[in-house]
Amino acid sequence: MTTVEAPPKARSRPRINPFAGIWRRPVPAAALVVVVGISVAVIFAPLLAPHPPLAQDLLHTLSGPSANHPLGTDALGRDVLSRLLYGGRPTLIGVGLAVLVYAFFGMSLGMLAGYLRGWTDRVIVAVLDVMLSVPAVIITLAVLAIFYQSNAAAMLTIGFFASAGLARIIRSSCIALREELFVDAARVSGLGPARIMARHILPRLTGQLLVPVFLFSGNALAIQTGLGFLGLATPAPAPSWGGMVGDAAQIMQQDPYLLFVSGGLIGLMSLSFGLVGDGLRDLEQDRRQATGGRLRRPVPATAPENAAKPSDGAVLAVRDYSIAFATAHGPRTVVDSISFSVRPGEIFGLVGESGSGKTVTGLSLLGLLPPNGAVTSGAAWLADTRLSGLPERELQRIRGSEIALVSQEPMLALDPYFTIGSQLAEVIRRTAAVSGRKDAVRERIRELLTSVHLRDPDDVARRHPHELSGGMLQRIVIAMALAGSPKVLIADEPTTALDVTVQAGILDLLRSLRDEHGMAIILITHDLGVVADTCDRAIVMEQGRIVEEGSVEDIFYRPRHAYTKKLIESTPSIARTEGRIA
Q: Residue 297 has what pLDDT?
């Protein structure tokens, strides 16, 4: 009898803890400890309170702290500590009710408006406008007139009207998430709106929800204690923080100590709520930049000032170069000890499939790694300048004038609000050695656009990016990179989004620019056809390592590594080799 093994369970995506990393920040961490500590003490009031909250001792009224009464007694001889512990129960319950209503209606209305859009969005936005325009305090007082001294009714009303502000925040975030590709994929898969909102939208909004929730908690506490101070919430003689402040205010001239104790506790809790909210907001911002939380940043490489410079005449040299990124499980190396050199006037290819580390290598040479990335070993040299470890001000001086980048997607390099000419003029004034006169800048723009084989450069300079084709935009980005006459031009997948005929024109342009200006070009690509047609030498990268290096002829006709052979075999071709399609 054979047994059939159950298929292994798919690993669920680890959920991000919104509080992860807060202990690295002492102020919000201390505030969180205060909120949790006081809340726990209030919950366990029957165990921690030294006396019943209503027990009176008229022989010891307004007494100071003692062993029997740690915080003293009030005007009726009741233990202040016991009343604070028991009085926190209706206070925090009221705050909790307001926060639940605030989060529920704010999240629900915001998600429905942001995802469904159309008439649903218009109706909800109109309702939110009405909620924001209505004076919530007056409505709360009217509710208390109906439900006399009902703490729950008052706080539910406050939470409902305050949720309009949260709904607007969630709506804006949901509109942005609605346009993400993973939402389109879920919609194409047949998932309905409810499933998409619950499964794909809501988990990404929980981190943003906590920040306004904690900030609103401080406001709700102030409102709740204010109602208690006026005697409109918890009826006497039951203890509440607001009621205790009201009692202390009546005897303030006789003994101000009680006002300091009760009011100080309320102020401490309100301040702590706000500090925790600010801390979570900072953590969320860091997490978006992949630098916060539990991520352990890689240690940047350091080298002595007199480190050996390459002496092989290369315009760009990379030696024992490693790059790592911070992840939830520690630093992860994505480029591992690579070395290569690029000579003047050479087109050098960085070849590999997606995820091989070629683009990261190119961006690191310009100091454009994300905040959670760092060069952890080795160095890169641009002529006599060591690029690795340069301060940002020095990198700004080098970018564009000595080493430039042509991005994979030209629309990312161009601002849709400005004309081509204005954007080129900005780069020219920043990097090129031309006078500030408009005529000189205009002539330089004409030269650059002509050099990349664009007809009627004056007309192109007057247009916006959306008025031009993809091939023309790519040529404009190349012209922008040439504005400072760089020694090295890094072209990151410059032909990926273009059709075949336009690709050929861009490659011809790169070759002609190399021949005319003598610059070195680093061509980052996964297309071996582009490498064979354009490059002089190339390196093949696999999982962050160089597996092969040599001339294009050696790589294509005499490959040594199995990965290179597989890349060549996987390249689509209609040529027949030895009686079969290669």
A: 56
